[in-house]
Design goal:
This protein has 462 residues and is mainly beta. It has 2 helices and 36 strands.
């Protein structure tokens, strides 16, 4: 528990740690270097730091189990097709340094980055350096244990297409147009992403796949006539902690659609599903449900879903009491230890904790906002021996490199413990309607008193 006290004013601070560090990997046997901007680059060499490869494809062709490929900042024209095969103990890791863009060369169409028959390969971008971009999208075909982390794929066609009985494909901390998972794929994880959903299939389409985990994503647009989350002919699908924010007023397709072949083995819970004006929230086994309560009553699914506005911007929200705060299932399948920006959940300390798991105060969606509250207290004499104390919390909200502050919202889920300095103390609930809470006290004798005002926060701190 953190505690800070001073006369008339007490402050609370929560430390921030903003990092773009990617996950640790097994030691590599060799590091291969790619730098298309280097005058010393050559694709006929061995990819040393002094003489790096010019193209990513040359490094991909040379990489073997345990290798790390470091890709220097820059734009790389020409499709990259990775057929590399690593092992569980010695994966092949592609790491981008700075901002890397892979584009189709003149005359090329289709995905800029593809995996064909590859195994145990990860392609990772630095989160706070905007990751890596595949302007033509990504295709994963007949591959297993593939990780895409920090990807940006907003092409005119599909963002990420998983096909050819692939398995254990993970798409995390990415910004993609949509995700399409084809029949025969298994064990895929789509987690902590921003999915624009402006392609043919909307946000995510899972067809004939098994054991897919759709977790902690922000879906923020879907084409008219397309459901944001569409599960058909699939088994063992998990849909949790997502924010489905339909911004189109004319889309009539249900926001979340699970067909009759998938419904019995699909789990859906702890989502924020906010349908557009013309659409219903859910279609489950062919029946339409307009609210989470109706879905829960009929199927037992969506018991903790919310159908209120998440008040999100492109990446997150500065709304001080958005419904996704402190309300996720931190033990949901596919839940990551850190968010889109690489930050762990700390919880909004002035909003009621309604989530589950350990900790129970994680946020739904791809971002775990950081909240730094401060107690503001002011004592005013009312008469010779009485005083009125006003207390309110201001708070700075931060996500990634963005921040905002608010001071004028009621904080009904906290209490203030006031030590009046004369041996008397009391705990009062914050106002449920106003930002400022007023408390009065009368002293037995005149004198000089030091008042301490401490806010008791929902996440356990003070």
């Amino acid at each position: 528990m953190l505690s800070s006290r001073r006369a008339a004013t007490a402050a609370v601070s929560v430390s921030l740690a903003l990092t773009g560090i990617t996950a640790a990997h097994a030691d590599s046997t060799t590091t291969l270097y790619v730098s298309g901007q280097s005058s010393a680059c050559t694709d006929s060499g061995t990819g040393t730091q002094a003489a790096p490869y010019c193209t990513i494809q040359a490094a991909a062709d040379a990489a073997v189990a345990g290798d790390t490929v470091e890709i220097a900042n820059g734009t790389y024209a020409g499709q990259v097709d990775i057929k590399s095969v690593g092992t569980a103990a010695a994966p092949i890791v592609f790491q981008t340094q700075g901002s890397v863009s892979i584009t189709d060369a003149t005359g090329q169409t289709g995905p800029s980055l593809s995996f064909d028959g590859a195994a145990y390969v990860s392609f990772e971008g630095q989160l706070l350096n905007r990751g890596f971009t595949a302007t033509g999208g990504v295709s994963v075909n007949g591959s297993s244990s593939i990780t895409l982390n920090g990807l940006r794929a907003l092409p005119t066609a599909d963002g990420v297409h998983i096909t050819g009985t692939s398995s254990s494909v993970t798409v995390t901390r990415s910004v993609v147009r949509d995700v399409l998972i084809d029949s025969g794929s298994s064990g895929d994880v789509v987690s902590t992403d921003f999915i624009a959903g402006v392609g043919t299939y909307g946000g995510i389409s899972v067809t004939g796949a098994s054991n897919t985990e759709i977790t902690s994503n922000n879906f923020y647009y879907t084409p008219v006539g397309v459901s944001t989350i569409n599960v058909s002919g699939s088994t063992g699908t998990s849909i949790e902690n997502n924010i489905v924010n339909e911004v189109s007023a004319t889309n009539t397709a249900p926001a979340v659609l699970v067909d009759s072949a998938s419904a019995a083995s699909t789990t859906s819970n702890y989502n924020v599903v906010y349908p557009g004006a013309a659409q219903s929230a859910y279609s489950w086994a062919g029946t339409v449900y307009t609210t989470a309560a109706a879905l829960d009553a009929a199927t037992g699914q969506g018991a903790h879903d919310l159908n209120t506005s998440p008040e999100t911007t492109t990446y997150a929200t500065f709304a001080p009491t958005a419904p996704q705060f402190n309300s996720a299932n931190s033990s949901a399948p596919g839940m990551l230890a850190t968010d889109f920006f690489g930050d762990a959940c700390t919880g909004d300390p002035v909003v009621a904790v309604t989530g589950t798991g350990t900790p129970a105060y994680c946020d739904r969606g791809a971002v775990q906002e950081k909240h730094t509250p401060t107690v503001n207290a002011s004592a005013t004499a009312q008469s010779t021996r009485s005083v009125e104390l006003s207390s309110y919390l201001s708070q700075v909200t931060t996500f990634g490199i963005y921040s905002s502050s608010d001071q004028t919202v009621a904080r009904p889920d906290i209490t203030y413990t006031i030590n009046w300095g004369d041996g008397q103390s009391q705990t009062v609930s914050a106002s449920t309607t106003a930002a400022t809470t007023f408390t009065s006290h009368t002293y037995a004798t005149p004198g000089t008193y030091s008042i301490t005002d401490t806010a008791n926060l929902t996440t356990g701190g003070t």
